[in-house]
Amino acid sequence: MATNPAAPRLAWALTGSGHHLRECLGLLNELEDVDLFLSAAAAEILTMYGYRLDTLRRRIRVFRDTTASSVPVGLFYSGNYHTLVIAPATSNTVAKCVYGISDTLVTNIYAQAGKCRVPSIVFACDTEPQLESAAPHGIVNVYPRRVDLENTERLRNFEATRVVSDMAQLRQAIERRMPCPNVSCS
């Protein structure tokens, strides 16, 4: 693992959600200087949606939730990242972030990003009382519970955290955080 790079990178975390997963991975593939962090559930979901981990690894560094202490979080203390993106973020991940539970790679890097003053962008899945979401075999209607919507609202009030509700907001938030927006940094 490289530490203290000349130019900090974007850290992107996936959770176990298929909500806009294809669109999120499409946006991720447009970016350079990005590392991908996968929860255990995200690794399962990728397979369910037809993505191969070895294909992703050809283009980006991938860290999986395979250690009890979430070893890759140390990269945040070494100045490797300028921004953390969690997209898509399940209601489970959002709730854990809200209540300070850091028991997965994704929730642990969210906590450590905050402690290192690295801004976070969270594309929460549960932002409306009724949503259409992509399942592995088609679109389904989803009805987030009140607690899920309340946790999303709580997360909006966290320091250095921007919660977004759709792909346009996600793209815009990421573009604002990129060190050299709309120009080559070379």
Written description of the protein model:
By secondary structure, the chain is an alpha/beta fold. The protein has one domain: 3-Layer(aba) Sandwich (Rossmann fold), CATH 3.40.50.1950. About 35% of the residues lie in helices and about 25% in strands. The chain contains eight helices and eight strands, in the order E-H-E-H-H-E-H-E-H-H-E-E-E-H-E-H. The protein has helices spanning about 20-30, 40-50, 55, 75, 90-100, 105-115, 145-155, 165-175, and strands at about 10-15, 35-40, 60-65, 80-90, 120-125, 130-135, 140, 160-165. The strands form two sheets. Strands 3-2-1-4-5-8 form a six-stranded parallel sheet, sandwiched between helices. Strands 6-7 form a two-stranded antiparallel sheet. Helix 5 crosses helix 7. The longest helix has 11 residues, at about 105-115. The protein is globular and about 45 Å long. Mean pLDDT is about 90; it is low at about 180-185.
